Amino acid sequence: MKKFIVILMATLLSAIAIISCGQQPTLSESNSKVVAVANVINAPDNTVGGTVTLTQEQKDGILPTVEVRAEITGLPPNTTHGLHIHETGTCEPDFGAAGGHFDPGPYGESNPDNNHPFHMGDLPNLVADASGRATVIHRTNRITLTPGPLSLFDDNGSAIIVHVDEDQGTTGVKGGAGGGRLGCGVIQAQG
């Protein structure tokens, strides 16, 4: 049994190493931070815009942590909106091409109404003030900006979506994950 476990672990580590060989941002001793930015653009007939900055820091022996800082303007005053990382890095027609919520892996489920709020790309809601501004600062180890199974920089990239409605944080409620899309930004590595 021990021999089987050793072989299984060696195979798993080899697979992770092979998967991690893509052209993605990397951390080095001289560069302990990786930064990515999504410039959020508005859908037709609204004024939503802003920036989402993602900063990954690696500390020895600890899982990488990504700080997500969203600063969004042009929202209807005093409203709440879902904010998510979506599975495809494009903001084409009506932002539908960004696909479902980012949720990689063998048990992933990108349908926003299923497996919710456990998608890797689920973020806290945006709460707009009286002037339509909203800020979210959130730290997570459910995503990475460097090579690996949770990387936002897979073959088709990732995008930030600002939704019309709030994310209710429940599973199986049609539209409970925020509904339509107000804004979109493709996540792009910096530097």
Topology diagram in text:
Layout: H1 2-19, E1 33-42, E2 49-57, E3 65-73, E4 80-81, E5 83-86, E6 126-127, E7 134-140, E8 159-163, E9 181-189
CATH class: Mainly Beta
Q: Would you tell me which CATH topology applies?
A: Immunoglobulin-like
Shape: globular
Q: Helix/strand/pairing class, anyone?
A: mainly beta
Indicate the percent of residues in helices. under 10%
Strand content: 25-35%
Number of domains: 1
**Total strand count, please?**
9
Radius of gyration: 18 Å
| CATH architecture descriptor text | Sandwich
Overall average residue pLDDT: 80
CATH-defined superfamily: Superoxide dismutase, copper/zinc binding domain
Question: Number of helical segments?
Answer: 1
Q: Could you characterize what this model shows?
A:
By secondary structure, the chain is mostly beta strands. Mean pLDDT is about 80; it is low at about 1-25. Strands 5-8-9-1-2-3-7 form a seven-stranded antiparallel β-sheet, with no helix packed on it. The protein has a two-stranded antiparallel ribbon with strand order 4-6. The protein is about 10% helix and about 30% strand.
Short descriptors:
globular, 1 helix, two-stranded antiparallel ribbon, 191 residues, 7-stranded antiparallel β-sheet, Immunoglobulin-like, mainly beta
In short:
Helices cover 9% and strands 30% of the residues.
